[in-house]
């Protein structure tokens, strides 16, 4: 039987405004009676009249905060702006520490109880947005922005998609008013991955000025190496390559890129290669002011290309943080190939390595094998060869799993023996050890890789998978989320979504497991191996129709695949793999 509360509760679409007073506890500790009196006056003289004037309803006050409901998102945003301006004026000159509000606004379905209180996702998202807002600032969801962007004369800043606690989907966030506290900047609030005392930088794709469009890969390779060198400085926050490459070929201002990625500095440049000669031009820009800090060109021959890269890295580091010692720059240099032709081949292979697709894997392997014929001791080539073999095992592409496991481990260990302090190569060895289920050694190597390069989005991704395999899904989710913060536009981001989905499966949250894996598959439809874990998530969530459709998609691309073959490729705990097998069985896949 339904309770009376269930019978009287109603649902409706509403704009929800959540607000609180910044630093309320600190104000109370200094002057309890005075703070209470100021807050009471503010509510009576400013907050309540403003809400009424914009046809809103004050739902409730909660300590230092309050919750309002509006039928119109336009009125909710107007009210928020007027509130911030009125509070700022009311506080001018009265006290050493003026009162300030943080406001969040969302448009969503809410539940209204018979006493007028409101609940639901629409409320929860508004509350999360309010916590994200700066003092004197306003954060609104993408739904609100969609409704108001062409109807209000305000400047909105797109702060990208965010994950909030207990909200099972990404929320796009827009901010209005930078905040009225001059000691706080929007970048400080947004760049959660970077501590405030670390310089933050994004290296954009260099423009290929060569007549030969085939040299595009070479320009990309130079950027790859500069990012790798900068990432070795623990005192820097460096955005991952795959996120900065999202701007390739686009005409976007440096200031916008700085806001998008949450960085203070942007390095941009060009490469011109003609025969044996090469010119690299680079300039460092302050993304807040748009000012050029330095610009330089570097001329040389192909044999000097690595020296030119080192000169650029040294110039960047010296301009941003002059106290960096020369010894640290020396340590940042990676083991170089003996053959530039081998280097060329590896640079050509990189996009195929990260595609995580069957045909791309074959092409990457072909190019890397050619590089190793030219330079058998090139550690990056050895490492990438190992990772390509590892992909074949993990994604059910291998024709000989035992042999591929042996070779994956052999090549990964050979690379690490040559370049034992290269974080990428240590990460590959850690990944190889998860494939052979040597989890303790894998954890040690991934921890060392992250100590050497805390900016490695891929190392955080592999650490997330390792925690999944060790039946530690909550830490796994944290590491996937950290990877996404480091590289928000990464083409590999879908792999983090998949990891989060599998973590929810491990924790028996099957609905969320399906949602996250669906998101990963929508982002990367060619990654048909997703259905190996998506189908069982559907099945154990109770949606057998979707589970059977998912298995049908899997069989289109993996004709004849069986449950036992899928389980052999996975590295999860026996208990988790048992549930994957159960779900696949329910979805109709043969043993």
Please give a structural write-up.
The protein is of the alpha/beta class and 591 residues long. It folds into three domains: 4-190, Nucleotide cyclase, GGDEF domain (Alpha-Beta Plaits, 2-Layer Sandwich), CATH 3.30.70.1230; 200-332, ABC-type transport auxiliary lipoprotein component (Rossmann fold); 491-591, Tetratricopeptide repeat domain (Serine Threonine Protein Phosphatase 5, Tetratricopeptide repeat). Helices cover 54% and strands 16% of the residues. It has helices at residues 4-8, 24-30, 32-53, 73-91, 121-132, 142-148, 186-190, 216-231, 241-244, 254-261, 305-320, 326-332, 340-353, 358-374, 379-394, 401-418, 423-435, 439-452, 457-469, 473-486, 493-506, 510-523, 531-540, 544-557, 563-569, 574-586; strands spanning 10-21, 57-62, 65-70, 101-112, 118-119, 138-141, 157-162, 171-176, 200-203, 207-208, 237-238, 265-274, 277-286, 292-301. Strands 1, 2, 3, 4, 5, 6, 7 and 8 form an eight-stranded mixed β-sheet that branches. Strand 13 and strand 14 form a beta hairpin. Helix 3 (32-53) runs antiparallel to helix 4 (73-91), helix 19 runs antiparallel to helix 20 and helix 20 (473-486) packs antiparallel against helix 21 (493-506). Mean pLDDT is 81; it is low at 1-6, 178-197 and 321-335. InterPro entries: A/G_cyclase (IPR001054), Adenylyl/Guanylyl_Cyclase_3/4 (IPR050697), Nucleotide_cyclase (IPR029787), TPR-like_helical_dom_sf (IPR011990), TPR_rpt (IPR019734). TPR repeats lie at residues 423-456. This is Guanylate cyclase domain-containing protein.
